[in-house]
Structure formats: C-alpha cells, structure tokens
Design a protein that fits this description.
- By secondary structure, the chain is an all-beta fold.
- Helices cover about 0% and strands about 50% of the residues.
- The chain has no helices and 11 strands.
- It is globular and about 40 Å long.
C-alpha cells in the first residue's frame, strides 16, 4: 500500500489549495478514504472522509462548508479542495486508508499573511 500526497504550500488567508493523494498497491475503488491533519503541538485530527463510491462524505465541523473531499476511482486518486483557508488550517495533511492502517508522508499547508 502506498499513498503519496501533493499540492500543499503557502497561501494567504481566504485563499484556496487542492490536495491530491495518489494511491497504489490495493484495490482503491472498494475502500473508504480519509484526510487527516496535524498542527504543531496538536494531535492528528480527522478532516474528511469519503466512501468507496464517493456517494457519502463527512467533514469535521471546523472545515464544513469550506473543504470538499472527492475521488477518482479510475485514476486511484483522492482530493481535498480547501477554500476560504484560515491560519488555523495550517498543518501537515495526510491521506489515510483506514482498512490498511496506512498513511501517506504528508504535505505541508501553511496559511499566513
């Protein structure tokens, strides 16, 4: 199982970023996927989840209405569109395959002026 995140970077408050996660080594289309984040000095927290077909999604209250999780099963990709970013969204963002307890290496998102 391999998960590789990309798309992080620096953005000003109110800006947007789109994170991508490329999955390989397992039958991606039949498993739920998640995005987590971990800010400095804080525990890793669940940001968003998506079902295997993409028909069901859920979000942490802190990002609801601003973030959108999606997936492309043909490409074995999962995405996190982040809009109206706030400084408190600064964290390392991780892609996670729960059934395999497998994490990506993470991608840094920094929101500051």
């Amino acid at each position: 199982v391999q998960l590789v995140e990309s798309g992080g970077g620096w953005v000003q408050p109110g800006g947007s970023l789109r994170l991508s996660c490329a999955a390989s080594g397992f039958p991606f289309s039949i498993y739920d996927m998640r995005w987590y984040r971990q800010a400095p000095g804080k525990e890793r927290e669940l940001v968003a989840s998506i079902s295997s077909t993409g028909s069901s999604t859920s979000y942490a209250d802190s990002v609801k209405g601003r973030f959108l999780i999606s997936r492309d099963n043909a490409k074995k990709m999962v995405y996190l569109q982040m809009n109206s970013l706030k400084p408190e969204d600064t964290a390392v963002y991780f892609c996670y395959a729960p059934v395999f307890y497998s994490w990506g290496q993470g991608t840094q998102v920094t929101v500051s002026s």
